[in-house]
Structures are given as C-alpha cells and as structure tokens.
Amino acid sequence: MSRSLAFRLGCLTLLMECCLSAGCHPGYNLNLSLDAAYGKSLGDEKVFVHVIPVNTRDRDQLANMPIDSYWQSTGTTKQKISREQNTKIFDLSADKPTATLSRDDPIWSVWKDLGDSELMILSSRPVPETSSSGEMDPRRRFIPASAAAWASHDVRIVVTAGGLRVQTRQIISPH
Description:
Strand order of the largest sheet: 4-1-7-8
Number of helices: 6
Strand content: 25-35%
Structural class: alpha+beta
Helix content: 25-40%
Distance between the termini: 40 Å
Order of helices and strands: HEHEHHHEEHEEEE
C-alpha cells in the first residue's frame, strides 16, 4: 500500500472515529406523519405530537407519567413540559398530514449538549380504552436521540389508529 493511500485511509478512519464519538451531525430528520386512513377518520380534528428530550435522570418519571392527564388542557405537567423551550411541538391533520424536525435544527445540538440521550414522542391520538404506563401506551415512544443509532438519517414515525409506529430500523439500542 502506498503512503498516500495509507495516509488517506488513516485520515478517513480518524474522521469516522470523531463522527462516532462526537457526532458529525447530532441530529437526523424526524419525519412525523399521520396515516392517511386514520387522518380521514378524524375529520377536522388535529393530532398533537410533542417531541421531548429525555435524560437518564428523568426517564422513569416520564415513562410513568399518565398520558391522559398530560393531554388535558389544564394538566400542569403538560404545561411545564410543553413550555420548556427544548420541547418541539407539532400538529398533524388530514389537511396537514406531515411535519419534520430537520437534522439542521439547532435544537439537536442543544439536546446533545444537555446530555439528552433519548426523545419521548407523545401523541394526543389515538385515545386507548385504558391508559398504560411506559411504552405500553400506544401514544408514547422513546427513541434514541443519536443519529448513529439509526440505519438512516431519516427517522419516520407514523400516527396510526393503533398508535405511534416507528418505521425506521434502529441499529443501536439506547439501553
């Protein structure tokens, strides 16, 4: 192997190691969408989706938070979380069935700097017959915040009649 090729390979290896440890790009495109059939069944009703950064200290509390009380308009937990500037809020409807949190959004760097390793995705729909804790409630999903955890830089989550569905393959487990 020539010195030039060995040097280039060494530089490429160093660059890849830096990207994996520090993250060349801290985020990914988080593509939220409303299943078309489910969206039609809702008529003019909106589905609210909150993307909430999660650190290891707060995960258990957020996993056990009753979602029904969160979505009540007078819920103090919702007011505290949704008013935090680090929570991203989206609304979907039959007329506006998609929304994207771009990988270029500066919030990704903020989340990374704060040590937020996961995102809790909450949707206001569908309302299940009984509320459950953790990811047993179809309106709550925890996903890795790191772009390195995914097989693609486009992570797709769909709101369906059965709940939130993560449609992108995860390659690294968050736990």
